[in-house]
Specification:
The protein is built from no helices and eleven strands. About 0% of the residues lie in helices and about 50% in strands.
Length: about 120
């Protein structure tokens, strides 16, 4: 079964850190680009980090320097390390992988940044 299972969301204070994990199964994880998106109510899903199959990351300016995407191909898992979190980072975070022209999404992890 092709799926992505996320873990690691929660409540964190402003300035704090959180790491999300995305465990993949059912496809050749090491061959695909992995990405993290986030979404808040009423807004479109926003790309926050992406990493190529060989480990090259890219970030939008909104999270550059604060978020780090990584992958462990031996564990079929992608990660999103989030530091210096701000209230505006509050969202549901989704991991994503392409699969033969289709999109595979994780179930979503709620991240709340609040004091």
């Amino acid at each position: 079964q092709v799926q992505l299972v996320e873990s690691g969301g929660g409540l964190v204070q402003p300035g704090g850190s959180l790491t999300l994990s995305c465990a993949a199964s059912g496809f050749t994880f090491s061959s695909v680009r992995m990405s993290w998106y986030r979404q808040t109510p009423g807004k479109e899903r926003e790309l926050v980090a992406t990493i190529s199959s060989v480990g090259n990351p890219n970030y939008p300016d909104s999270v550059k320097g604060r978020f780090t995407i990584s992958r462990d191909n031996a564990k079929n898992t992608a990660y999103l390390q989030m530091n210096s979190l701000k209230p505006e980072d509050t969202a549901v975070y989704y991991c994503h992988a392409p699969y033969f022209g289709y999109d595979i999404w994780g179930q979503g992890s709620q991240v709340i940044v609040s004091s």
